[in-house]
Write a structure and sequence with these properties.
18% of the residues lie in helices and 21% in strands. With 362 residues, the chain is of the alpha/beta class. The protein has a single domain, classed as 5-stranded Propeller (L-arginine/glycine Amidinotransferase, Chain A). The strands form 7 sheets. The chain has a 3-stranded mixed β-sheet with strand order 4-1-19. Strand 16 and strand 17 form a beta hairpin. It starts with 11 loop residues before the first strand and ends in a 9-residue tail after the last strand.
Length: 362
């Protein structure tokens, strides 16, 4: 089968699991501040964020373990290339160091029989998708559609800074025009959740609004796109559908935002993540994901899902909550999820599910 994705919960047959390789440093330029501003607004960021080799190795070990677990469950797994050459790159507008494809959900939207490369707002990820090329060509040869949202120039005036307090260090405010006609299409696949014929798309900037307009024109009338304004970027750190009629929600972020959901989703039952993700990070760590990132599960079907923990064996409050609701959670070890900006849903990209474009919103 070529790619086939219409939901977050259909029986999973093929998936991509992230890969790191030799990753050592994040350069926190203004696009980093824009991308993570809700999570790092209280952190002091200067020059660069050095990643401890031990933490990178442990994250890689757990991604490899995640891939092995999925294979043992009968699911075909693909892996991006690991980042090997960490040479600074330069475009006419900026320079940075490359990033690994450890959270493939961010840069791709798989919908129906199509893989869409999305245009991330974080400059360092400009060439990240090259690490996925062998997989993209594999699916293309099998008949999948493969397209890209417009690649942005990413100059200073390409970005919408309206969510950032004026005068914030690291931004050239004197030369910033804030002209909407200069702002470009930028959005992540992880801003979208799939519900059969319907796609829920989170927007918080003019860049995202342009992304919605592009996606609507690109997909045409085959899908209905519903925009919400719930968070700065990714929806899968806020809530995830587990099956038709049931949502798993992050209480810290969603308890006062359920009214912002599309009308049909307001009628769905909600399961609340009962406690924050438990993990101790080294002093001074810059945490890029919310404290309730354990909402970021990966459904294998309407009953089973992978949940992640520091140990992979703990009988956690989230596991008990899911079991009481009739689900079968499978714990796996995935350390440092807040440090690396994503849980198990972020670190994977489902490419084949046995599902169809049904109408779950009527």
């Amino acid at each position: 089968m070529s790619v086939n994705i219409h939901t977050e919960w259909g029986p999973l047959k093929e998936v991509i699991v992230g890969n790191i390789g030799k990753w050592t440093t994040i350069h926190p330029d203004f696009s980093f501040l824009l991308f993570f501003h809700e999570n790092i607004k209280d952190a002091l960021i200067q020059n660069s964020v050095d990643l401890q080799k031990k933490l990178v190795e442990q994250r890689q070990e757990d991604l490899d373990g995640l891939a092995s677990t999925l294979v043992s469950l009968g699911i075909k797994v693909h892996r991006p290339l690991g980042l090997e050459n960490i040479n600074k790159f330069k475009t006419p507008e900026f320079e940075d160091f490359p990033s690994p494809c450890d959270n493939p959900r961010d840069q791709f939207l798989v919908i129906g029989n199509e893989i869409i490369e999305t245009s991330c707002q974080w400059r360092r990820r400009y060439f990240e998708n090259d690490l996925m090329k062998p997989i993209l060509y594999h699916y293309f040869r099998k008949g999948a559609k493969w397209s890209c949202s417009p690649r942005p120039i990413m100059g200073l005036n390409s970005f919408d800074f309206s969510n950032i307090e004026k005068g914030t260090p690291g931004i050239d405010w004197d030369n910033l025009s804030m002209n909407p006609d200069e702002q470009e299409i930028m959005f992540d696949g992880a801003q979208c959740l799939k519900f059969g014929k319907d796609i829920v798309f989170n927007v918080s900037t003019r860049n995202h609004e342009l992304g919605v307009e592009w996606l609507k024109r690109h997909l045409g009338e085959k899908f209905r796109i519903h925009t919400v304004r719930i968070t700065d970027h990714h929806l899968d750190g806020m809530f995830l559908p587990l099956k038709p009629g049931t949502l798993l929600i992050n209480p810290k972020s969603m308890s006062d935002k359920l009214d912002l959901l599309p009308g049909p989703l307001k009628k769905w039952d909600t399961l609340v993540v009962p406690e924050e993700h438990k993990e101790v990070y080294p002093k001074g760590s810059v945490l890029l994901a919310s404290s309730n990132i354990n909402v970021n599960v990966l459904s294998l079907n309407e009953k089973q899902m992978l949940v992640f923990q520091e140990s992979g064996t703990e009988y956690s409050a989230l596991v008990r909550t899911l079991e009481r609701a009739g689900f079968e959670p499978i714990p796996v070890q995935l350390r440092h999820s807040r440090l690396f900006g994503g849980g198990i849903h972020c670190a994977t990209l489902d490419t084949v599910r046995e599902d169809s474009p049904e109408d779950y919103f009527s």
